[in-house]
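Field reference: sequence -> structure
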Amino acid sequence: MKKIEAIIRSSVLPEIQNELINQGIPTFTVYQVQITGIHKFHEGWRNKTSDLLPKVKIEILCDDKDEEKVIDTIQETARTGEKGDGVVFTYNINQLVKIKTGAKDSAALN
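Structure field:
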């Protein structure tokens, strides 16, 4: 099992949602987040902390076999080629249990 997290522009969320639904991954969690960072600016090449920028964070649980497909979908759909397109990262999930039914791992995804 994998947990995939992505921080993306909010404007691409509906398209990513449609693509994931088409691939059989209809359920994921969405958070409104803000990011900041230190960036080099041309003014004397000083480092400057940026303002907080609104983004969306999505979390997806999937089978190991779907990991690359989900990552590729997010990357292809979210890519504008501009700074701030976002990031995708993954975690291994040791166990997933559906509270209502007790289903485990892949069976708990349905």
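Note: The radius of gyration is 17 Å.
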